[in-house]
Amino acid sequence: PNFNKYGNVTFYTDNQTKTFRNDTPSDWFQHYMIGVNGLCSVYDPPVSYWCSENPSGGGAFAFRTPSGVTPKAGALPNLPYKDASTAIFFVWRPSRWANWMFEVDTYDVASQNFSFGRGGNQGARGNNNGGDYFVENVMEELDYPGEFFADLKAGVLYLNYNGTGAPPADMEVVVPQKQVLLNASGTQWDPVTNVQFKGITYTGSSYTYMMPHGVPSAGDWALERYGAIFLQGTEGAKFDGCTFDHLQGNAVMVSGYNRNATVTNSDFSYLGGNSVAAWGYTNETATDPGRPGVAIANYPKAGVDGTDGNHPRYTTVTSCTSREIGLYEKQSSFFVQAKTAESVIIGNVFFNGPRAGINANDGFGGGDEIAHNLVFSTCRESGDHGPFNSWDRQPFLTTIRTGEPDMIMQWREIHHNFFMDNYSPQEDVDNDDGSAFYHTHDNFLVYGGQGMKNDFGGHDNHHYNNIYGYVGRGLGVCAQLDGHEDFFYGNKVVMTGGDVGGLTCSGTGKTVVHDNEYFTQSGSITECKMPLAKWQAQGEDKNSSVGAIPSDAVIMGWASELLGINSE
Asked: Is the pTM value of this prediction over 0.85?
């Protein structure tokens, strides 16, 4: 990385008493904090938690990206290039948490070194190095059927025809030009109201991965405020029975003030980014490209304050299908939210995505419901996560929980879902760094390293009445304060291992565990370093039992009863 490329970063840490959050034993994520400019100048606005003075959490360090690459001999066999000025490098971040795209600033033919120019803003987590990569839009790489090269200087499009013989004379080539196909934009004070779109097919939007991106909050994501459908300042917008197909960026962007934006009975397929993204505002910087001409008051002090209502609420996605998304930007999901509250994600089917199926980038407000969804074949191209993933590294002041300003979010409800973590299995519900106030219950959760997870200051995570199918262990949690313990009870846990998991067995923040049914290959299990019977003799894990793993038919029978699945 070139650490001096953009000059110095300006740190800001909020130290107001009213916005201090103190609910973990190790002082995790107590303060809202950001860094402005410096290496975060690649973003617009140039601000991120990951440029703050002390970013923390799993694998935490300050944001940076590699400055270029010298390919190993044979890695790009068509080198040298005559002209690399319009080439774009697609680079995986190590561990495959996201990918970056870079234009080429300079290309040294003698050394075969490519120095990166604009780009590197498509993910929030940086690294000194890049992972595996590919390059596009150089003439010498036009060597495989279906590929194309756009000679922007000459205004000529070259296509390697994928067929026998010459292309037919009437062959049609579609070159998308528009990034936004429908824009409904008002303001919080003069919103666009009750616009409805029914049975419309949206297709052929242009790519947005090289457009300005911002870091919406302290999760791992960066986003562009673009979508084939762009909503900002709306109330009651509805898309019913629509098709979103072959869109090269996000399908639907719900930006800033929106109330009751709804997508229902619709289908998403072959998208460059997310199916639906919801992203609100707080006042972090003097200007924001999403709010052109708006004088932003009280920044950065107001960055922690979400009480002004300039964020999506009651965003509803129901009875939709989504597949083959994140074809370009790999940090993409069926639904992602940041600075957004009280979303309703019910009755959807999602599969075949590169990263987590549903993502909550922060703990802003809460009150969301995720229910009756079927999600599988997620994280097909990336490391860790599963059907659902969350973070909560950055506290926010909202009125969602009580109607009054409050630093504690309303409980999120995750229930009656069928989640299958069949790629890169970590957890079906991956509550990462600081995640808190989750009721996860009455779900069928198949595969994964463990059933319940909390780490790096996570707390108030309640898993109950779930069926876990072939998980490594029941749970793995971190230290917590009294009154903020995790709960794990009333679950059926079919395990590939022989231990209940990592829990706080005594002392402060003791994990509450009881009334579970454990099933192992041996028919026995340990908990807190002793056989279950011995642990129970001490008055612990009351009314739980252990037995041998039942047949798949029995497990599916439990799931059918729990989820109301009728088999013919």
From this structure: yes
